[in-house]
Automatic annotation (TrEMBL):
It comes from the Bacteria. Residues 37-102, 168-248 form the Carboxymuconolactone decarboxylase-like domain. InterPro entries: 4CMD/NDH-1_regulator, AhpD-like, CMD-like. It holds the Pfam family CMD. This is Carboxymuconolactone decarboxylase family protein. Coiled coil: none annotated. GO terms for molecular function: peroxiredoxin activity. PANTHER family: 4-CARBOXYMUCONOLACTONE DECARBOXYLASE FAMILY PROTEIN, CARBOXYMUCONOLACTONE DECARBOXYLASE-LIKE DOMAIN-CONTAINING PROTEIN.
Length: 254
């Protein structure tokens, strides 16, 4: 190559214009990196906070306040089907009576809003699930995805003591419920830890689901905020208990 061309290219690379362009590119790249870090450290969004509060109040049967918060959840952008799914999911952890009472209350909220001319977004329905596959194995697979650990061939502990509960857990909770994609795994875990915190005295299960919550994408900062959000609905004693379990989980995941 002609030496004069090489010399010219070298001068161009050292020119103020080139240096300025390079600086702009580096600033843009660093800015994108900062945005990515910031986005991973964001707090809970309004929808997530509504899910926490609705789940907690449903579990405790606090109907007047629940009615207000159900409307608030719709105002924060949750669809009708998303809230219905939250209320249905709660029954797995606090029983049919609380869940159905929550659904009845939600029906009233929707009718009252319609009377005021408010038309809320229905949202998507759950996708069809395979009916010709082994439900137990599907649930087992989902549980393995949530925990990050392969599930043993034979149940142990309470599952071995009462095998039918292991079957219900895999086939119904993790196949029938968690497999429904109206809510993400992360949002289902928010419902779960909210209900468990609200009913209290279930620390081992709370510990397990807080660990799963980390795996589904919630950050330590967001889970600390979870305790702050749920605190006004569950009182000091249960808040202290939930916070203690969370601190234990976060310490073991460092």
């Amino acid at each position: 190559m002609d030496l004069s061309i090489i010399k010219l290219r070298t001068i161009r690379l050292k020119s103020p214009f080139f240096i300025t362009v390079l600086a702009v590119i580096l600033i843009a790249v660093n800015s994108m990196k900062a945005q990515n870090v910031a986005s991973s450290q964001k707090g809970l969004d309004p929808k997530a906070k509504s899910i926490i509060i609705i789940s907690s109040l449903t579990a405790q049967g606090e109907i007047p306040e629940l009615k207000k918060q159900l409307g608030g959840g719709l105002d924060q952008g949750l669809s009708v089907n998303e809230i219905k799914e939250v209320l249905v999911h709660t029954y797995a952890y606090c029983g049919f009576p609380r869940s159905i009472r929550g659904l009845q209350t939600f029906m009233q909220v929707i009718e009252e809003r319609k009377a005021k001319g408010i038309h809320d977004k229905m949202g998507r329905e759950a996708s069809p699930v395979p009916v010709d596959s082994n439900k137990y194995e599907r649930g087992k697979k989902i549980l393995g995805e949530l925990t990050g650990a392969p599930q043993p061939e034979q149940p142990s502990g309470y599952g071995a003591f009462a095998p039918v509960i292991d079957t219900f857990l895999k086939e119904h909770l993790f196949a029938d419920i968690f497999e429904r994609d109206v809510l993400s795994y992360g949002h289902r875990e928010l419902v779960t830890i909210s209900v468990i915190s609200a009913i209290g005295q279930a620390e081992p299960m709370l510990k397990s689901h807080l660990s799963i919550s980390l795996r589904t994408g919630w950050s330590p900062a967001q889970l600390k905020e979870f305790v702050t959000v749920i605190a006004p609905t569950i009182g000091k004693q249960k808040t202290t208990a939930a916070n203690a379990v969370l601190n234990e989980v976060l310490s073991s995941n460092k």
